[in-house]
Amino acid sequence: MSHDLPGPSYVPFDAPVLEHGRSLWSAPDAKSLAIQSLPCLPVAGEVGELRIRTGTSETLFADRYGGEGVAANGGSGRCGILRGVQVKGVGRTPLAGNARGYFHSYGGLSLQEGILDTIWGEICHRVLPYGAIRVRELYSTQTWVPVRYPKSNRTPVTPRAIAIRENCIRPAHFIRSPFFQPVPGLSGLSGGIDDAARTSAAVRLLPHLLSADSLTLGSQFTDRRAELSPETLADHLRQVFEKASKQLACARARRIMHGSLTPSNHSINGQWLDFTSTTTVSDYGRIVIARGAPDFMSEDRLLYSGLTDFLYCTWKYSQGTQSSFPCYPDWVKFVFPSPQDILRRHFCEELLLLCGVARGELPKLNRQLALNLADTMLEIARAGNHVPFSILSSENNDYIPIMPTQTGAYHLPSILQILASSPDQAWANERLTSRLRSSRLRERLIASWFSLFPTVPEPIYTAERTDFLRVLNAVRLNSAVKDLYRTFLYDRISSVEPGSARAEINDLVAYGVSRLGDIDIDELRVNRGSVDYVAFSPAAGFSISGVRCDFEVGLRVLLGYLDAPPDVFEGLVARNAWNIS
Q1: CA 429 centroid distance within chain
Q2: Where are the domains of the chain?
Q3: Would you call 428 exposed, middle or buried from its count of C-beta atoms within 10 A (0-12, 13-18, 19+)?
Q4: What pLDDT band is residue 580 in, cutting at 50, 70 and 90?
Q5: How do residues 530-552 score in pLDDT, each as one tens digit?
Q6: pTM to 2 decimals?
């Protein structure tokens, strides 16, 4: 995909080069993106002296964008593009506005923020349908910056980091930033800040960018200045909305909350970025993770609000070039008339994957039976989850120490774990009576479940071992991913020293991917760290960290890693699982 926006979308600035930047982590394939020098500007409040290479500097480009969440900034306030990648935490750019509060525009990046971006970028890249904009390299400047919310028992400063991440085109690049307040004296804006002209130029290039993304036109679109008909442009924009919806639906089903899905925090290709508020959650409740942000089950409101701004700007700034554009209300209906229906459809599909079904097998399921099961699961998840609640304390912006295990009337994840391991309907009804008190919902769920899975065609789930693998995957995907709860994760990485960042990142990425990732029909692997894991395959049985083990031992270790309810093990005993050992 091309990353070239029009010239007015960029503001150049110079930054000196660090003499010694300490490498903390790099992606296995980062060599192709490596930069030979590390630019870095001093920031206000920095403790320690940056070791600058005398007489050397780099010219970077801050990209201009708008939309919700940008506030007084005019785009990237702490990122600069250098040779095709973004340098995040480089210092205050000319687009860092005159905002209130030090942390909104000081230009730096803490080590904790860099680690969060790295961990969640790697996990989401492997777990979500359209991946993530990844950090490829993470460095320490060997200086310190202030902690935003220091705790009384910890130092008020933290190591400063610089992240080298992939570049991307975002919906925000085509949205106005009318509240940008440039800081007097910052260079790079001598040519003016005509935001309308910047937005108009970007919108005129949008058809090329969308076709370069292989949405539909691909190689046949070669003229960057050419115009598309409203119908063809609408087709492109519809796919942007569709991808954003599918990405959110998958994350919601896996109980991954981004925390701030503004138009600058996802790409036009569906990828997510900027993960400092991201968390897993315990249930399908209306959990609020960031002050002023939507709750977990309402993240679509912020997502679609930003995309609506994107849609408006594409309409407004296409007016001079196309006389056949409809009026704006008709344009909205024409491009994306029912976003909630699209999101619900994708969410129901993703809920079915939690039953242990591989993604490639979804089209083979009986459609009506699958919809019945998904609708029942959705009703159970929503029961009693009507009121948002925050996991931020009321006194300050610190996080409360625990994530509630259950938020609504019922806990769908543990219900599905027990149902998946049940040998028959009578056993399932007995074990779920106390967890799912509504006899109507319980009977409907059990009947839907046992009606659907016998209809899965050969050869996927006919052998006993592969059916057992489906059960284990259902237990895995519905397990609590506690180490990635924001409450725990931030405390854990706050004590990480630069020298241990690499191991910590690799352990948490392996842990997260093994619990949240799609199903592999050949093997299941659950990691406790990057090297500690338990695996099961139909061909080889159980192994622990690569060493084959007894069936019962492996099963108990696996269920222990997943913190599965005791009913799961008892259900597998009742299924006579030992016959396949």
Answers
A1: 36
A2: 7-169+177-186, 220-342, 355-477+522-580
A3: buried
A4: low
A5: 888 999 988 888 999 999 999 99
A6: 0.93
